[in-house]
Design goal:
This protein is α+β, with helices and mostly antiparallel strands. The chain contains 8 helices and 20 strands. The protein folds into 2 domains: 324 residues, DD-peptidase/beta-lactamase superfamily (Beta-lactamase, 3-Layer(aba) Sandwich); 74 residues. The relative contact order is 0.13. It comes from Modestobacter roseus.
């Protein structure tokens, strides 16, 4: 159940939305904030039919996240691995030696656009009709972030081949319908906005074309309403409806490639953009197609999200971060109360451990996680750890992500490092041994 905003907050959000629509000269714009599982506030500005939450706009590249979710479902089912070469699933392309994971994170070095006509404005065909060549490989694998619509077109083909059904049918059955996004479709259906370009020097508009992008549909084909996009924001905040597990969603949010061209801190996970704005990390995706702009981003720490849809090709100032900042300022989240929890290891295991001479603290976080990091105010590496079934612990983040922690009575063994109860404890198995003369003062 959505948690509605206060009237004063609604006024602030509306004022920002109205200014962005006017200054950006968008023929129409709808926006909303998400809290408590649904739209907590929304508004439409310009030429918007009522109900403004039920008018379709083109999502553009937000479609990529939907595509990525099916790829991750295939991975979780064991049908593929992220390290698989594309050739194992879609043979015969010039990008066959690039991995599925590299395509998901725009690290495959694939060309930004598909060959042929401007795919966003002309009808598309099948993969066999796409004139792919070595020219569509523009960078080495895993060398740098390079946004690629072509890469996601190929991932859509992978999805279709694995499921034996068209991409649009697969994402509808496996993502959209389970989330209740019944007004999200590959082509406009029912009440839908006309896409427009706005003249740069005059207040006149030009209709933009709409078409089926064929094999490139997976990169930007979907249309959705504000209500449906709000539901997708709730999904990104953790209401996954078992489309993927919370752990898989978390995995998708971990930055893989950094967008060095961005004005601020911006990265890309697995089908998701991760940006840092005003000290806050936002997860989601933006979208643009000729005639349309869209955005859905969430602040997972605050458990809030914002969504925006407009029928203009370009020119809007970013609205989503501002809406989230307004909401955060006007109605900061009241966090859950702290309550005691039994630690996942004996109390005597916790406390100070030394990496060489450097003191670190092993502490429990609730009843399931451990955190190992330097003393407050000291430099060093920190990571959280979760228990495995065999008595070891696996790093979740930071320097030790994916590494194994083993806990013994007199030492911690972590990625070949041995942490001891006293600096270089000679009774512990310190690699290289400890000088038998021990610690020495001046001579």
């Amino acid at each position: 159940m959505a948690d509605p905003v206060l009237p004063s907050t609604a006024r602030t959000l509306l004022a920002r939305t109205a200014r962005v629509q006017r200054d950006g000269r968008a023929p129409s714009l709808v926006a909303g904030v998400v809290r408590g599982g649904g739209l907590a506030w929304s508004a439409g500005r310009g030429d918007v039919a009522e109900s403004h939450t039920d008018v379709q706009y083109r999502l553009g590249s937000i479609s990529k996240t939907v595509t990525a979710l099916v790829v991750m479902r295939l991975r979780d089912e064991g049908a593929l691995h992220l390290d698989d070469l594309l050739d194992e699933h879609v043979p015969g392309t010039p990008l066959g030696d690039r991995t599925v994971g590299q395509l998901l994170s725009h690290l495959a070095g694939a060309g930004s656009e598909s060959p042929g006509g401007w795919w966003e404005r002309v009808p598309g065909g099948t993969l066999d009709e796409l004139p792919l060549s070595d020219d569509d490989v523009v960078l080495g694998a895993a060398r740098r972030f390079h946004y690629s619509n072509l890469g996601f077109g190929l991932l859509g083909e992978l999805v279709a081949r694995h499921r034996g059904a068209p991409w649009a049918d697969v994402v509808r059955a496996e993502v959209l319908l389970p989330l209740g996004m019944t007004r999200t479709t590959p082509r406009p259906s029912g009440a839908a906005a006309q896409g427009h370009a706005v003249h740069p020097w005059a207040d006149v508009v030009l209709p933009e074309p709409e078409h089926d992008a064929g094999v490139m549909a997976a990169a930007g084909q979907l249309w959705a309403t504000l209500a449906d996009l709000g539901r997708f924001a709730a999904f990104l905040l953790g209401d996954t409806a078992e489309v993927v597990s919370p752990a898989t969603l978390e995995e998708m949010t971990v930055p893989a490639g950094v967008d060095a061209s961005a004005a601020g801190w911006s990265a890309y996970g697995l089908g998701l953009q991760v940006v840092r704005a005003d000290g806050v990390t936002l997860v989601g995706h933006g979208g643009s197609m000729p005639g349309f702009l869209a955005g859905v981003f969430v602040d997972r720490a605050e458990q809030t999200g914002a969504v925006v849809l407009a029928n203009t090709t370009s020119g809007l100032d970013p609205l989503v971060p501002g809406l989230l900042a307004d909401l955060r300022s006007a109605e900061p989240r009241v966090v859950e109360a702290w309550t005691p929890a039994a630690p996942p290891v004996p109390l005597e295991t916790l406390g100070v451990w030394f990496w060489g001479p450097a003191p670190h603290v092993l502490r429990a976080q609730g009843d399931r996680l451990l955190h190992l990091g330097p003393l407050p105010g000291r430099p060093g590496r920190a990571s959280r750890f979760a228990a495995r079934g065999d008595g070891t612990w696996v790093g979740l983040d930071g320097y030790y992500a994916g590494e194994t922690l083993r806990i013994a009575p007199d030492h911690l063994d972590l990625a070949t490092f041995v942490f001891t109860r006293t600096p270089y404890d000679p009774a512990a198995p310190v690699p290289g041994g400890v000088d038998e003369r021990g610690w020495q003062g001046p001579r």
